[in-house]
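Hello forum,

I keep getting stuck at the same step: I have a sequence, I want structure tokens, and every attempt I make locally crashes halfway through. Rather than fight my setup again tonight, could one of you with a working pipeline run this one for me? It's a single chain of 358 residues.
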Amino acid sequence: MEPISNQEEATTKRPTPPPLPLSVKIQLVGLTAAIDAVERSDGTVNRCLYGVIDRLLSARPSPRPDKSTGVRSYDITMDASRSIWARVFVPTAGAGAGDPLPVVVYYHGGGFALFSPAIGPFNGVCRRLCSTLGAVVVSVNYRLAPEHRYPAAYDDGVDALRFLDAHGGVPGLDADVHVDLGSCFLAGESAGGNIVHHVANRWATTWQASAKSLRLAGIFPVQPYFGGVERTESELALEGVAPVVNLKRSEFSWTAFLPLGATRDHPAAHVTDENAELAEDFPPAMVIIGGFDPLMDWQRRYADVLRRKGKELQVAEYPGMFHGFYGFPEIPEATKVLQDMKAFVDTHRATTKPNAVA
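Reply #2:
Ran it on my machine without issues. Output:
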């Protein structure tokens, strides 16, 4: 009898999908259908159709606090020439009892090629982040692939931090809301989690020493999008079983984002001991992993790289959770992960009181 290969073994031991609320299943079907409808086989995005979907899924900013979270939001322009803007989320007045609030700079997911801060699920996540963490959240609209390949998203992510540092805070806040740029955190899921890592390292390497007041106190790569030419056990075992991520969609995302001709072993996708030259001031990280995410093996390897490099690290795993689970408040773990993130923020804020800036 012929021995069973690793690939065959992985595909024959597929786990059973976890039970999900019907509302979540319907949303996941709609989300994946929209993604597959706009991603073309030639590696481009049908921007005409995408524009229609974007308008249908987008939420407007809410100048007045909403009833569910008490959070208000508004948009600011960071660089009109590159269409870099951000949606700012502000907690209920008095949330910080007069103390300056931490800032969370957020990078949305979408495989580097899709979506914006206005898309409903990301708009909702940022509202809940703002309310739970008691922080001002700045959700950045970066340029999308394949029209803007690597390193455009990283450049835009760093420039968003430079914008905040140059302004000494977040423009547009009410006079009684102050922020602590010395307690700035980065967060993002999927492709946004990948951006979080690379922006944090670029900032720590090049910009931190000359920054006026912005200091990265920590980062949240939430189910970050990493990969490689190798197909891992979790990718093979969960192919066709787990929602959102599959090999075809991953291949599209990397082909759209990476430089022409590059493989998935490019350092943007494949973070290893050999190519991860982490800055001495690389911030503490809380890496969030779902136990039903095809990318979990890559995420664990990424965490191992940070650990071996001697960086402060906390790994939070949520068994049975699919890629992007924390965007669905119907799932209890979506609340639990925000509570865990709040604990991380509370223990990593700047220890000295900075001058309050608005």
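Residues 352-358 have pLDDT under 50 and may be disordered. If your local run keeps crashing, start a new thread with the error log.
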